[in-house]
Each structure stands twice: as C-alpha cells, then as structure tokens.
What we know:
Helices cover 62% and strands 3% of the residues. By secondary structure, it is mostly helical.
Amino acid sequence: MIGRIRTYLIRYSRLQTGTVSYLTLVQEAELGLNLDISHEKSRLNEMLAEISATEHEEGRPPLSCLVKVQGSKGQGDNFYKLCEKMGMGEWRSLKQDEDFLKNLIKECRDFWRNEANFQQFARSSADD
Length: 128
C-alpha cells in the first residue's frame, strides 16, 4: 500500500496542481480505507509519515505535503510535527510561516517534474 501511495503522489506532483484530499487519495490510489474509522485514518497518516520520512532521508522533498484534510487550508499539526522531527524547524513556527508549505509543495513539484529525478527515483523497493 505504501508503494501505491508513493507512486500516486509522485504522479500527482508531476501532473496536477494544488493539493489532494485524503478522500481523493484513498479513492484514486484504490487503498480501500474507510476514513470514518479512526484507526484506518491513523494508518493512512502513519503511511504518509513513513513515506515522507524516507523521502527526506534520501534528500527528496516530503510527498505528504501534497495531501491535506478536506475543508482545511493546509496541513494539520501532525504534518508540522513530522517536519520538526525531520529537522526543518519548530513545528509551531513552521505552521505560522505561510511560505513554508507553499515552498515545500513547489520543491516537491520541481523535483518530480525533473525527468532525470523521476527516472532515477520514482521506482522504489516499496513498489515491488
């Protein structure tokens, strides 16, 4: 499932604009999760965090910056706390910085729209 989420988000960053909602991600990546069940939503959050942490460790932008809660302006606290764990700054400061998320999304799009990066990094062992 992690491979499907990662592949979907890479494709999304290359071909779409804006962000994707949790619900759209679940439906379009055919994850079969019910977001009304708290432990299934938590599982999705854990997978997104794992994907982003791995991407960050590999020197790539965190893909979960593209996923937002429907009806919200951007990311929830958990996303910013993950960024803090990855050494990007104190989470409350990151959340207050209007440019932080915009820049992260732009960085993610720029990285994955670069054909050389896409060819080299789009497939991972998690996809197998």
